[in-house]
């Protein structure tokens, strides 16, 4: 007669034999994790990619701290460097750094002007426009934007070529982030 080791009493026996002695540590670690993640989860919302990036950034930051603290494998410095790069890229994607950099090269003043029907019209007065300098700074992104059919209208009006370049740079940062994660995330262990 063959014994059936998938019965509940054998599972209970194996749990007591191997896992029960660590139960108190698992519970303590669980409470520490709840406390650590509480601010992130409290602010989490389901309607925006910002919150997905916030959770990912927090997890990568904690993994980098732990790896840096314990230093348990050869090449941990390189992996921490890539984790920090991912943190920076997530920050820049969330804060729309590349679009804001484009705005730094322009100085606009917004005015409201009343119209005949009693409403107001928004008018932008351009005080300074160094878009050409911005575009010259990123020639590779400019070439890529010119090839992309989405930006055809942006180049008809020269003022918007900088916006096309900033969008291309933003997309490049996002692709770089996920490329790093795809290639290196399985090395981030302790």
Explain this structure.
The longest helix is centred in the C-terminal third of the chain and has 24 residues, at 161-184. Helix 3 (49-70) runs antiparallel to helix 4 (76-94) and helix 5 (97-104) runs antiparallel to helix 9 (161-184). The protein is elongated and about 90 Å long. It has a two-stranded antiparallel ribbon with strand order 1-2. The chain has a domain at 8-42. It is mostly helical and 190 residues long. Helix content is 66%, strand content 10%. The protein has helices at residues 8-19, 23-42, 49-70, 76-94, 97-104, 131-137, 139-147, 152-156, 161-184, and strands at residues 106-114, 120-129.
Q: Brief overview, please?
A:
With about 190 residues, the chain is mainly α.
Note the main attributes of this structure:
single chain; 190 residues; mainly alpha; two-stranded antiparallel sheet; 9 helices; elongated
């Amino acid at each position: 007669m063959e014994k059936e080791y998938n019965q509940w009493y054998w599972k209970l026996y194996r749990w007591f034999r191997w896992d029960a002695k660590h139960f108190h540590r698992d519970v303590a670690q669980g409470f520490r994790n709840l406390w650590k993640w509480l601010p992130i989860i409290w602010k989490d919302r389901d309607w925006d990619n910002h919150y997905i990036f916030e959770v990912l950034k927090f997890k990568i930051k904690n993994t980098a701290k732990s790896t840096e603290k314990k230093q348990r494998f050869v090449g941990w410095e390189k992996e921490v460097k890539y984790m920090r790069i991912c943190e920076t890229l997530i920050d820049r994607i969330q804060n729309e750094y590349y679009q804001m950099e484009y705005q730094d090269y322009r100085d606009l003043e917004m005015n409201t002007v009343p119209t005949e029907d009693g409403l107001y019209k928004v008018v932008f007065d351009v005080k300074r426009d160094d878009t050409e300098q911005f575009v010259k700074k990123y020639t590779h992104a400019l070439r890529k934007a010119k090839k992309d059919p989405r930006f055809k209208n942006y180049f008809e009006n020269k003022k918007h070529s900088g916006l096309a370049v900033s969008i291309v740079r933003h997309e490049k940062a996002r692709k770089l982030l996920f490329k790093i994660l795809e290639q290196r995330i399985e090395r981030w262990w302790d």
